[in-house]
Amino acid sequence: MKTIFGSSKLQTLARLGAFLICTACAFSAPPIAESQGFTVEQVMSSPFPESLTAAARAPRVAWAFDAKGVRNVWIAEAPGFSARQATHYSADDGMALASLRLTPNGRTVVYARGSELNSAGEVADPTSNVTRPNQQVWAVDVDKGEPRLLGELNCTREGCEDIEISPDGATAVWAARGQLWASPVSGAVPAHQLAFVRGENDSPQWSPDGTEIAFVSHRGDHSFIGVYNFGRESVRYLAPSVDRDSMPRWSADGKQIAFVRNHGLEERVPLLQTRPNPWAIYVADAATGEARAVWHSTEELVGSLPNLTENKSFHFVGNRIVFASEQDGWNHLYSIPAAGGSATLLTPGEFEVEDVAVSRDGRSIIYSSNQDDIDRRHLWRVRVDGGKPEALSKGETMEWSPAELADGRTVVCLGSTATSPAMPYRLTLSGREMIASSQLPADFPSAQLVVPKQVIFPAEDGLKIHGQLFVPRGRNSAGPALLFMHGGSRRQMMLGFHYMQYYHNAYAENQYLASRGYVVLSVNYRTGIMYGRAFREREKGGPRGAEEYLDIVAAAKYLQTLGIVDPKKIGLWGGSYGGFLTAMGLARNSDIFAAGVDFHGVHDWSARGIFRGGPGGQEGGGPPDRAEALRIAFESSPNASIKSWKSPVLLIQGDDDRNVDFSQMVDLVQRLREQKVPFEQIVFPDEIHDFLLWRSWVRGYKATADFFDRVLVKCESITSGN
User: Fold this and answer.
1) Which of the chain's ends, N or C, has fewer CB atoms near its CB within 10 Å?
2) Residue 208 preceded by cis peptide, ω within 30
3) Going by C-beta distance under 8 Å and a sequence separation of 6 or more, which residues neighbour residue 130?
4) Where residue 118 falls among pLDDT bands split at 50, 70, 90?
5) Ramachandran region of residue 395, left (φ > 0), alpha (ψ -120 to 50) or beta?
6) Does domain 195-265+277-304 have CATH number 3.90.550.10?
7) Parallel, antiparallel, or unpaired for β 565-575 and 595-599?
8) What are all long-range contacts of 587-593, with beta carbons under 8 Å and residues at least 24 apart?
């Protein structure tokens, strides 16, 4: 519900005064396009693809399509790649699909449906249905199209869905409520818990012969690699220690298991001190559990366990182990012999690796990166034992999520361009061919979209900042402009439709805003990814000083140099971390930013996580520098500058947000009311952070454009809260 606050008499006087002032403003402002070329619904109408997967022994691929909130499984097979729908859900009901897996013969797809649990143990229900939903595991035979329920999933944290199918395709295993569960893919008998194991257990990995499952058992300050044996119904542990072990990977012959080990949790660690997180790769005898380290990182900060792609980049391939490391300052792939030895750098250069897949013959790695094209993604192939990487795609397209088919030759992926949305593709000798092109809506406005321009500008301290500049067609005079800041902050916006749905939607909104006459600058501020570790890991970033705000001011100053921008009509918008930076701009620099739209932003770092108290959030104990860290965290927050916040803001959030507490918005509104700052609000009951309903995104994005049209361009006044 959109709410405008204030008493009726004061509103009347305020609106009369605002009318006299803003009449002149409206005459002097460049008009927004009276007949816009397309709607929000049209630019967000394309089905978003994700979870692309390939069968191990059949020429078939599967993926999930989210078409206006209606999520379904789709499949296609070589050589024709004629796509067809495998499930037939029909509602924008917020029931997400995840963890798609094809059985080796390609005949059945197993998948998760529904969201993870919140802190109250509830699956998200943005439709406010009176029947409580569950997160469940389903299977569908692709030639029959009738899904069958395998069991409950009810994952306890975001992104923990991890369904794994046995090598013979007969059994699925997954983690649910801290234990491992299994079910026949046929659904012939109900799912059952494999065993009771202390701790929180996840990350199941089948042995090549299907007789055992390796998994991670989290025990709070330490973790073990466990191995469950089906025949004996027993669990054994690999070289247990006080450290944290993770990412078990079987060798092809099933005799060895590689895993990652980093130090156990240390209590009362200072919050303001940046410390390295060294790690090592161990290889264990799968039968005896005895293990030895085959590689150690350095003890320096650049040697720390990378937190970007380590789980996707860790593989036991033939007689070598492939892993990611930032030891040279960039997220790169390396490989070492399983017996130990020197690591070979596979991907040298000033770029970063993201998605990683192993070829069917086990001789090479296919990966996505921003090599030679820093603000896009392309696919590459490199031999496991080293050599010059081979470009599989290039140009003004973007590609990610590679998978190789069972034939060992055909590569499929997801991709986009600046004006065409994300879709599945197969690579060809001449480029790429779209799969399921018939599913692109006929009225999707590709021809009306603009191609953003890469811009690079310096921050006050000299750091080079990248961005994408959207310029409305025919723009040749000064007019309104907007900054957009992504969330994360471990994200990067690119010169095309994004590979994550949240930012695919945001890119579409930036195109919509450009169609309405706004110059839009999307800012890749420091603490983001793909520009090197030094750019991302900032000693004074976020709650340690909000150093990244320098880049937002620099972006505004860059806009002010453009003849097509009216420096008095610059607004800003963003979500999550971008919402935090939106609020920072309005709180610290209402003299620069005339209006803002803040989607589920952080407004007080000191109210989050460890700052609330000692271990587990209890008072007492905790870091020795907690008081100083608390002070700096608050000073790094919008709330610290609330007295200088003057510009109007639209606040948007769901009240079942699992990433940013809804209390952040509730608290900010009270502070804005006290300062008489004009604001509007939209609250989505039962929605989460990454809105599950397509209609929530549409409403939020329509309201964003409408707010800027009224407040930034037409200068309509909104009253402060009471």
Assistant:
1) N
2) no
3) none
4) confident
5) left
6) no
7) parallel
8) 587/638, 587/639, 587/640, 587/641, 587/642, 587/644, 587/645, 588/549, 588/638, 588/641, 588/644, 589/553, 589/556, 590/644, 590/645, 590/646, 590/647, 592/553, 592/556, 593/483, 593/556, 593/647
Tokens 């590569």: give the residue. 411
Residue keyed to tokens 């030639």: 143
At position 588, the amino acid (one-letter code) is R
Enter the tokens of residue 543.
């709650």
User: Which CATH code of 3.30.420.10, 2.60.120.620, 3.40.50.1820, 3.30.565.10 fits the domain covering 3-31+450-612+631-713?
Assistant: 3.40.50.1820
Tens of pLDDT, residue by residue over 5-36, are 333 333 333 333 333 334 335 434 444 544 45
Task: Tell me what the mean pLDDT of segment 276-305 comes to.
Answer: 96
Read off the tokens for 425.
């593709």
Which of 604, 609, 661, 668 shows the shortest CA–CA distance to 633? Answer: 604
Q: Rounded mean pLDDT of 402-427?
A: 97
d(CA 176, CA 161): 9
What is the 8-class DSSP label of residue 31? P
How many angstroms separate the Cα of 238 from the Cα of each of 174, 287, 313?
A: 21, 9, 22
What CATH number should be reported for the domain whose range is 306-440? 2.120.10.30
Tell me which residue of 611, 612, 587 sits closest to 601, measured CA to CA: 587
In the prediction, which pLDDT does 13 show? 34
Residue reference for tokens 């070589």: 78
Query: Among 156-160, 294-298, 360-364, 494-498, whose mean pLDDT is lowest?
Result: 156-160
Q: How confident is the model at residue 100 (pLDDT cuts 50, 70, 90)?
A: very high
Residue 63 and residue 16 in contact, taking contact as beta carbons nearer than 8 Å: no
Are 195-265+277-304 and 306-440 in the same CATH fold?
yes
Dist. CA 252–CA 219, nearest whole Å: 29
With residue 669 as reference, give the H or E element that holds it.
Answer: helix 663-674
Higher-scoring residue by pLDDT: 307, 709? 709
